[in-house]
Design a protein that fits this description.
Structural class of chain B: alpha/beta
Largest sheet of chain A: none
Number of helices of chain B: 10
Oligomer: heterodimer
Strand order of the largest sheet of chain B: 6-7-8-3-9-10
Number of domains of chain A: 1
Number of strands of chain A: 0
CATH topology of chain B: Rossmann fold
Helix content of chain A: over 70%
Distance between the termini of chain A: 32 Å
Number of helices of chain A: 11
Largest interface: A-B, 16 and 25 residues
Shape of chain A: elongated
């Protein structure tokens, strides 16, 4: 019953988020600040994870191909498919649920605890629009970060492959070009847009509606991470079934 | 003028406010006092429109809040200044940005006009050099003054203060009390203060509303409170020996 209540409340929050918009001059600066806080500050960790995950995927694929009849370019092919379809959009989003999600929940939750949200409401400001809408817009740039992640993942795979001696540069490059389907990129970006919206709104929900003090802010951040991850995994399954199934 | 008529508010089966009627005049410091759990905060949040209520009405200069459209409510809220118990300053903004915030949201002032106005109100609350500090770098008393500056920067008609003295030393508390009273008089606004600080009651209580168990048990001025025989008021106000002695002296002097 509590879950149904929260689902209903979440959708009401989304609807309310679009009402009574904040002045554009203020909203613009909020969006720019959120782009910096949520996207720019995450680029380092996305780059680091993507590069090394790409490398690990390549090494594991190469080590599991011990049949001499299987062409070496399949290492590049498998890396491209894994990074493009799953590791960059989904795996990175789960990590972002921890980084960006807990930042959003704790910052909004602290505003709730210290009556800053009440202060906004008393002034006649739609606090949902003021706090959550700029985050949702800022995270629409998240696919660009994921695109960088995809590139670096494949680059990491190439570095591991060539420097580890698992395949030649020529084989790896022909592998990443082998049977390339542009719809896979479209599919990955559709997923990423959906995940970006979830990353902005689910942690905001747990921060905005939290009750209690500092301890509850920590608990809300943990709960937000768990539910953001669950929703991302479920939607990943549904979207994959709809678009590729 | 704010008029409250027969206000009822419950949470589930628990009745918090059980039919409160009172009024708060322009240019006066109105204090709501009462023990913890008497319904003061709920009453204040109803006045601010943060809580809805089941029965009764609240009118601001004749405009009944519950009958206003969303846009009218928004316009009315732009005329309200609020000083929260914990100051509720936006911790990602400097003190000057906090003060300019209502101007940014509700006026078409240019940046330099907003800076000039923030400068005036920060000087008014005796913080002429605090512009670039972050709220976390300011003391409790300074934060309260910034909150007052933010509350009055857009020339509000109504000023609400929730426990403005909590956490402050007695000297700073008196400074804040006097500042609120001076501003109320100077700007001719309706000021409503939620407090259980008896120093404030004696210092600035031009009108005092005493709440007990969700009911208005007494109302009057700081002069009347010395004379009242209402037991619930005397039990609460004169619970400390110091105030008992003050009352005794007042009665002896006036006999």
């Amino acid at each position: 019953m509590k879950y149904l209540h929260n689902i209903g409340r979440y959708f009401l929050m989304i609807a309310e988020m679009f009402r009574k918009p904040t002045k554009w001059s203020v909203m613009r600066s909020l969006i720019l600040k959120d782009i910096d806080d949520l996207i720019i500050s995450s680029l380092g960790i996305i780059a680091f994870i993507s590069f090394f995950v790409g490398g690990v995927v390549t090494i594991q694929t190469a080590l599991n191909i011990d049949n001499p009849l299987i062409p070496k370019y399949l290492v590049g092919f498998a890396t491209r498919q894994s990074v493009l379809l799953e590791f960059a959009p989904t795996f990175t989003s789960i990590i972002m649920a921890g980084k960006v999600g807990s930042f959003i929940t704790s910052s909004i939750g602290t505003m709730r605890v210290t009556e800053q949200i009440d202060a906004l409401e008393v002034m006649g400001i739609n606090s949902l629009n003021y706090l959550i809408f700029p985050k949702a817009i800022a995270l629409m740039l998240y696919p660009f970060a994921i695109a960088i992640g995809m590139f670096l993942g494949i680059l990491g795979g190439m570095a591991a492959s060539v420097f580890g001696g698992y395949s030649t540069l020529t084989d790896y490059i022909s592998g990443i070009q082998y049977e390339f389907d542009t719809f896979h990129v479209t599919y990955a970006f559709i997923k990423t847009f959906v995940f970006a919206f979830i990353l902005a709104t689910v942690p905001s929900f747990y921060g905005y509606y939290m009750k209690g003090g500092a301890l509850e802010v920590g608990k809300a951040s943990t709960t937000a991470f768990v539910w953001t991850s669950v929703v991302i995994i479920l939607l990943n399954y549904i979207i994959t079934g709809m678009l590729l199934g | 003028m704010i008029e409250v008529n027969n206000l009822h508010k419950s949470f589930g089966d628990t009745k918090i406010l059980k039919g409160i009627s009172t009024s708060f005049d322009k240019g006066k410091t109105n204090l709501i006092i009462g023990q913890s759990g008497s319904g003061k905060t709920v009453f204040l949040k109803c006045l601010l429109g943060l809580f809805t209520y089941e029965e009764g009405s609240i009118s601001y200069d004749g405009k009944i809040f519950s009958e206003l459209s969303e846009d009218q409510k928004r316009d009315l809220r732009a005329e309200i200044g609020m000083v929260f118990q914990g100051s509720a300053l936006f911790d990602s903004m400097t003190i000057a940005e906090n003060v300019m915030f209502p101007l940014q949201m509700f006026t078409k002032m240019s940046k330099s006009e907003m800076e000039d106005r923030a400068d005036i109100v920060l000087k008014r609350v005796n913080l002429p050099d605090a512009h670039n500090k972050m709220p976390s770098e300011a003391s409790g008393g300074m934060q309260k003054r910034v909150a007052i500056a933010r509350a009055i920067v857009n020339n509000p008609k109504y000023l609400f203060c929730d426990e403005p003295n909590s956490g402050l030393d007695p000297k700073t508390a008196i400074v804040i009390d006097n500042l609120i009273q001076e501003i109320t008089d100077e700007y001719q606004i309706v000021t409503v203060i939620n407090s259980h600080d008896m120093n404030s009651v004696m210092e600035i209580g031009e009108k005092i509303v005493f709440l007990r168990n969700g009911l208005k048990a007494w109302e009057g001025s700081k002069a009347n409170i010395f004379k009242t025989d209402n037991e619930s008021v005397t039990d609460f106000v004169y619970s400390s020996n110091l105030f008992k002695k003050v009352r005794q002296m007042y009665i002896e002097e006036n006999e």
